[in-house]
Amino acid sequence: MADFLTRITRQLAAVAPGAYFVGGCVRDCLRGMPLKDVDVVLPGDPWAVGQQVVLPMQSGSGRGALFWLREEDRVARIVFPRAPGLQLDLAPLRGSIQDDLRARDFTVNALAIPVLAGLCPEAAVIDPLGGLADLRAGCLRFCAPEAPVADPLRTLRAVRFKHQLGYQIDPWTEWRVRECAPLLGTASRERVRDELFLLLATDTAADGLADLVSLGLWPGVAPDAPRPPLVADRPAPAAFLARFLAHVRQAEEDPDIGPAVQDYVRQQYSAPRSFAELLRWAAAEWSLVGGREGIVDVALAHRIHRSLRLSAKEGEMMARVLTGAAEALALVRRWPVLPRERYRLFRRARDGGPGAVLLAASREDHLAWGALLAEALRRQSQPAAPLVSGRDVMRLLNLKPGPWIGRLLEAVEEERADGRIATPEEARRWLREHGLALVPNAFGTAGAPNIEGEPYDRGSDGSDPD
């Protein structure tokens, strides 16, 4: 990627010699960190410059894609298929480069390197606010008193950078964060969500949530969530998340199931949020919607998800994790339980099954958790093919489509879970012996059997076959 970035730098220098690398890319370059998001400010039109950068790469897989990131601010972005993860943002220069840097968030981001010099640690750095000294000291300091007023999201970003970079917030900056915390509620909910999940991705995410509460930022992050109670002298979301993270680390180190746990939590559920980050938020959220014995306030959970602008898919998955965790706790408290009870848990939890067990296990110790988690992971990675289909049931019992078809299929799977049947022939025999007795309503007007004696050739949902 370094060679590719060098090539892009040469093209930028040719078409926009007055441009500067600014912000986080300069900071990370000086820290020796990998570069992914490269910010450039330039005099003139960013779109026209972007077109001239992309134009030489119009052939083959190296072609870059140019689009508006924020057209109202004239900020354009280029992504490069040849360098996955690298993106170049082009923005107009606000006044002089010194003026532009003074208007930024933190001094460690108020650094610039001329594009002509190249993005490298040896280049001369423009530093009007002492950002290099703060970088060496690991100190986060607002560029100006009005920085969090100009963009209230910077209050949340201070906490995110603290835990992402491992820096400390300057006392004056911390005071300004507290003072301006109420303004966070005016920031875009999508931007708040993105900052929160970047914080959740850090190694010290639990401490980060504690900081959100102590600095007064929690209402601006989760306005629909109740005020977090204290658990062992820590805000409940932080305490619950800390226990969850510790348990996940322990599970990942297990020689038998560790690799499967890692594969599960690291899958990309809905870009850019990973399964791990969503599970971390579910763990924090459980302290607010499921802290009482055996109760999960699903309606409140969905209000929180909507306020964070999470997708319906993400919200439903986390609701399944939360309710599944409560159900898993109830099961282990009366362990051992029938296999069909475990099957019901995982059928309802679906993709959230292993997450539900991990979350529940972080609440209470029990010898059953290892076996239950292994079963959840096995069902997730190796789902068993059904013994019979809905069409088989209708043909075998001469039934019309209806809700009883699904109930019969579930009954077959529960018998299978208990070990009473194992083959399609055994399933068909069981249905012939017990099926109609389980669905007396199938003989009602809406779902009478086919009195002509011909089997209905339909799918389990009642649709006509292809």
Q: What is the rounded Rg? A: 28 Å
Strand order of the largest sheet: 3-4-5-2-1-6
Largest sheet: 6 strands, mixed
Average predicted local confidence, pLDDT: 89
- Based on secondary structure, the structural category is alpha+beta
The first-to-last residue Cα distance is 49 Å
Percent of residues in beta strands: 5-15%
**Domains, number:** 4
Number of strands: 10
Low-confidence stretches: 444-466
**Helicity, in percent?**
40-55%
What is the 3D form?
elongated
Number of H/I helices: 22
List the helices and strands and how they pair.
Elements: H1 2-15, E1 20-22, H2 24-31, E2 37-42, H3 46-54, E3 65-70, E4 75-79, E5 87-92, H4 97-102, E6 112-114, H5 131-137, E7 139-140, H6 147-150, H7 153-166, E8 168-169, H8 171-180, H9 189-200, H10 205-214, H11 218-221, E9 230-231, E10 234-235, H12 236-252, H13 258-265, H14 275-289, H15 298-307, H16 312-332, H17 339-349, H18 353-361, H19 369-381, H20 390-397, H21 403-417, H22 424-438
Parallel strand pairs: 2-5, 7-8
Antiparallel strand pairs: 1-2, 1-6, 3-4, 4-5, 9-10
